Amino acid sequence: MKIKTPTSQTIYNTDFVQWIKVTVKELRSQNYTAVDWENLIREPTLKCIAVQSST
Questions:
Q1: 12-45, pLDDT tens digit by residue?
Q2: Domain count across the chain
Q3: Residues 21 and 39: beta-carbon distance below 8 Å
C-alpha cells in the first residue's frame, strides 16, 4: 500500500507554519512546479483585505 504524501495545498489547510516552510524551501531550490501558487498569491490578498477592513 502506497502512502500518499501531503501536497503543499493540503498542508496549507492543516498546518500553516509547515506550509510556509515547504513553500520557502521549494522557492529557494527553484522547484517552481511544486509551489502552491494559488495560496501563495491568495495569502497577501487576504492580509490586505483584513487590514483595509480594520481601518
A1: 999 999 999 999 999 999 999 999 999 998 888 7
A2: 1
A3: no
Q: Which residues neighbour 5 within 8 Å (Cβ) at sequence distance 6 or greater?
A: none
- Residue 10: which of 39, 44, 33, 30 has the closest Cα? 39
Within-domain flag for 3: no
Residue 44 lies in a domain: yes
User: 521549494: which residue's cell?
Assistant: 26
C-alpha–C-alpha distance, residues 55 and 38, integer Å: 27
Domain residues for 35?
8-54
Confidence band of 53 (pLDDT split at 50, 70, 90): confident
